[in-house]
Design the sequence.
């Protein structure tokens, strides 16, 4: 049994913490949102009066917070408020599972090490359903030793666990994957709208592309038109799935990484702009495959 502090008991963190409890671990949690605390308490999480008390005597601290700024300020504290790093016993293992920028993950790691602790980044994919079912994919940036220590915990919360390398490389893998996803979802949506304009049925395009070189997850799982894949969000009025707001956030992190490295990633930047506009409107709460409706609405009307 490991004693774990779990900070951030929201949509993802709540069920992840609950799965750790179910597996027999002692989990001490905190979240400033009362509803999150109530749900975690009823799942068997011990509730601490505040975050710094939660981390005082544990082996591992897991954070699942909205942004990198939340993680850095939780680690370091703000003003007169002590941070988690100053409140944990020496050599505590800090694991951040939030989706944050690669440079923020490295900063968090360096702060933890400077304070006498160990640190890893372990962002996830699989959404709320994966968090509830314990089938998340973990992308881990950690030393070999820390990865070996953490693997049994990841196996409780996840299905596929990949050790991507050292500090920051879990976030690097996540950002690269989601950049592929954002670009490919737009590409598939554009192809369906083009097919419509050319008189091609959705099913015919699907039958060809899903068995040809256009095959990809955005087509065969998250097909942006209703019909060909009965479980895709398009069949359910674009209920997420993976909300446009989250895709916009993740492409913003990709853009930060592109800026940092100077890579000529023109499609990554363009996808970021497209999803930023989508998330500024109704798309924030719709599945990101709903971008097809924007493309259709913005397409010129011609007689072609
Ligand atoms: P959420 O907003 O539901 O949960 C975040 C929680 O953190 C909130 O309950 C908030 O009150 C709490 N919090 C904020 N500051 C805190 C602090 N200092 N101490 C303790 N708790 C604090 O968000 P979520 O959907 O659970 O996402 C969490 C992270 O997981 C994000 O980085 C997100 O990008 C990533 N993620 C989300 C999904 C998804 O489908 N929701 C999928 C993959 C990754």
Sequence:
């Amino acid at each position: 049994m490991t004693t774990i502090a779990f900070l951030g008991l929201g949509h993802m963190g709540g069920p992840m913490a609950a799965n750790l409890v179910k597996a027999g671990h002692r989990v001490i949690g905190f979240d400033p949102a009362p509803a999150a605390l109530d749900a975690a308490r009823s799942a068997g999480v011990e509730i601490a009066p505040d975050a710094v008390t939660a981390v005082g005597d544990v082996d591992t601290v897991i954070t699942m917070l909205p942004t990198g700024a939340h993680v850095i300020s939780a680690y370091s504290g703000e003003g007169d408020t002590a941070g988690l790093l100053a409140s944990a016993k020496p050599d505590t293992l800090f694991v951040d599972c939030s989706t944050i920028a690669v440079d923020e993950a490295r900063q968090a790691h360096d702060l933890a090490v400077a304070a006498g602790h160990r640190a890893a980044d372990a962002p996830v994919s699989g959404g709320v359903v994966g968090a509830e079912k314990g089938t998340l994919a973990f992308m881990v940036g950690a030393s070999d030793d820390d990865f070996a220590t953490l693997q049994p915990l990841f196996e409780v919360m996840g299905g596929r666990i990949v050790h991507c390398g050292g500090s920051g490389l879990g976030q690097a893998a996540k950002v690269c994957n989601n950049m592929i996803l954002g670009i490919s979802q737009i590409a598939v949506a554009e192809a369906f709208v083009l097919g419509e304009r050319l008189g091609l049925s959705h099913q015919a395009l699907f039958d060809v592309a899903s068995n040809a070189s256009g095959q990809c997850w955005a087509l065969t799982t998250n097909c942006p038109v209703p019909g060909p894949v009965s479980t895709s969000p398009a069949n359910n009025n674009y209920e997420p799935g993976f909300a446009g707001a989250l895709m916009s956030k993740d492409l913003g992190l990709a853009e930060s990484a592109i800026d940092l490295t100077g890579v000529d990633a023109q499609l990554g930047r363009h996808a970021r702009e497209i999803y930023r506009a989508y998330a500024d409107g109704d798309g924030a709460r719709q599945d990101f495959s709903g971008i097809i409706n924007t493309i259709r609405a913005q397409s010129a009307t011609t007689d072609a």
